[in-house]
Design brief:
The chain is α/β, with parallel strands linked by helices and 367 residues long. The protein has helices at residues 4-17, 21-37, 58-67, 74-79, 86-97, 124-136, 145-155, 163-178, 192-203, 206-220, 256-265, 275-286, 308-317; strands spanning 115-117, 156-160, 221-223, 237-242, 287-298, 319-327, 336-342, 350-351. Helix 8 crosses helix 10.
Length: 367
């Protein structure tokens, strides 16, 4: 996949047009869907000094573009959203599905482990779960679009409040499904368009595959308020993962009516509460017996006074398996940890992830 047209558009949108973030997200979603739907001529794309590798899959390219959204927009500050670096999501999910000896829990992903991301952003955690599933299964396990579509349909679930960002998550998973047949796989710059055309001609059913994949991902990524809505409320999952919004009531950005509804529903919605605490509390009601949660959270929750209710909840109702120290991967500037917990109370140690966190590739902090 030649990324220059993608990033050329992003550069123009950010540096020349100064368009609002919501319009940028919509435009990128349109672009993602058009790239998935048909090959494009990249001959007129501007040359860029910096861009991700040309041979990454289309699914990952969508995540890269999502992370390019303007970080300083008022919308981002008001929503508490910060897109998740791909390597951070990989580290957290690896810590979640692997035992202390490094082996995968009962071949977790490959055995049909179900994942919910209640603030999925552009789908980075669900994408990582899918990619891990392909890695831990036999080589023939998820090597076709049909098998990948079945996996997404059976195992991946997402909720995203922003409709444009939800479209990005659907596009990410749709692209991953198509990559099972090589339709959207990354190739070198010179061969990009030719390889895509050859793949489409070889399959002869590109439009049908695309329609089926899009239908599945639309049904699996629901646009709703995860805390107050009903999306996936009747289901339970093996793992609830993600990067919820960091948005405290002390900043005055939660409407009074919404604050009252949250206080009525959640035990941790008291005093100067933050939405991330409510996402953790909600996640504990959504996991199966023996299930676990894996969240990106602000490090201050380990000691600040207004997170005491959340710490007490975790001590009472979970076993904390791991706390990963991620430093400051977001432009928000706050120190971040990864929390992996399940079941019922224990103590953990703080560890540094082995893999360094690279530049953002997308999810949402809400993702």
């Amino acid at each position: 996949m030649n990324l220059k047209p993608w990033l050329g558009y992003a550069q123009r949108a950010l540096c020349e047009r100064h368009i609002p973030e919501e319009a940028f997200a919509s435009a990128i979603a349109n672009l993602a869907e058009s790239w998935i739907g048909q090959p494009n001529d990249a001959s007129s794309a501007p040359a860029l000094a910096l861009f991700p590798p040309d041979d990454i899959p289309l699914s990952e390219a969508i995540l890269h573009l999502s992370a390019l959204q303007p970080q300083q927009q008022a919308l981002k500050k008001n929503s508490g959203q910060y897109f998740t670096p791909l390597s951070l999501a990989e580290n957290l999910l690896n810590a979640s599905v692997r035992k202390s000896n490094g082996t995968v829990r009962a071949e977790s992903c490959g055995k049909g482990l179900t994942f919910l991301d209640p603030a999925c952003g552009s789908g980075v955690f669900l994408y990582v779960a899918a990619r891990m599933a392909a890695q831990v299964t036999p080589s023939s396990g998820l090597d076709t679009t049909r098998k990948r579509a079945t996996f997404v349909n059976d195992c991946l679930f997402g909720i995203e409040k922003d409709p444009q960002v939800a479209r990005l998550a659907r596009a990410t998973l749709t692209a991953w499904i198509l990559e099972g047949a090589g339709v959207a796989e990354g190739v070198g710059v010179g061969a990009g368009i030719r390889a895509e055309a050859e793949a489409e001609a070889r399959l002869g059913v590109h439009a049908t595959i695309l329609a089926e994949a899009a239908q599945i991902t639309t049904a699996k990524i629901l646009c709703d308020d995860a805390l107050l809505g009903n999306a996936w409320r009747s289901s339970h999952f093996d793992c609830v993962v993600g990067n919820p919004p960091f948005l405290g009531v002390r900043r005055g950005r939660i409407p009074v009516s919404e604050k009252a509804a949250l206080q009525h529903r959640f035990k941790t919605a008291q005093g100067q509460f933050d939405l991330y605490a409510l996402f953790v509390e909600d996640a504990l009601t959504r996991i199966n017996e023996g299930g676990f949660i894996a969240f990106v959270l602000p490090r201050p929750l380990l000691s600040n006074h207004y997170s005491a209710l959340l710490r007490n909840l975790l001590a009472r109702e979970t076993t904390v398996h791991n706390i990963l120290d991620f430093g400051k991967p977001f432009q928000a500037g706050v120190e971040i940890i990864g929390l992996v917990a399940s079941g019922n109370s224990a103590v953990s140690t703080v560890t540094k992830p082995e893999t360094a966190i690279s530049s953002p590739s997308a999810g949402s902090a809400n993702a």
